[in-house]
Amino acid sequence: MGWDKKQRGDTERGYYYYSVRLPGRPHPVKICLGRGAEAEAEAARMAEKQARQALAKQERVAQLARHARLDVLIDEFNALVGVVAAAWMHTKGFHFHKGSWRRRRGRRPNDD
Predict the structure, then answer these.
(1) Which residues span the domain enclosing 24?
(2) What is the three-class DSSP state of 11?
């Protein structure tokens, strides 16, 4: 949650709130820590946690970008291997029919 400035009380600094999920309650409950040292410490801890989470997210995004480049290279390699395999199968007398390679009638696979 964070610092919440109310119309009453200290309108400059506000009060620190955080949310907690309690068993049996469908929605989170707001807990007020006030504006003292405990609230300042909790706010600093939460800011540090958010910074760590943002850094972890940036690392995951960078890793996904590296994997995306590898996926493109693998797809290109797979396409080239498919072309070479199809050429070799055609030279050996096979044809591609309904999703599988089949031997042409009247030819043996080792006929050159």
Answers:
(1) 2-83
(2) coil
54 belongs to a structural domain? yes
Its pTM stands at 0.53
39 assigned to some structural domain: yes
Q: Which of 85-91's residues contact partners 24+ apart within 8 Å by CB, and which partners?
A: none
Full DSSP string of 69-88 = HHHHHHHHHHHHHHHHHHHH
For the chain, 112 residues long, give each residue's pLDDT as a single digit of tens. Answer: 677 766 666 556 788 888 889 999 899 898 888 888 888 888 889 889 999 999 999 999 999 998 998 999 999 999 999 999 999 999 988 988 888 888 877 766 565 5
In a domain, 68, yes or no: yes
Count structural domains, the chain. 1
Long-range contacts of 35-42 (CB under 8 A, 24+ apart): 35/10, 39/15, 40/16, 42/16, 42/18
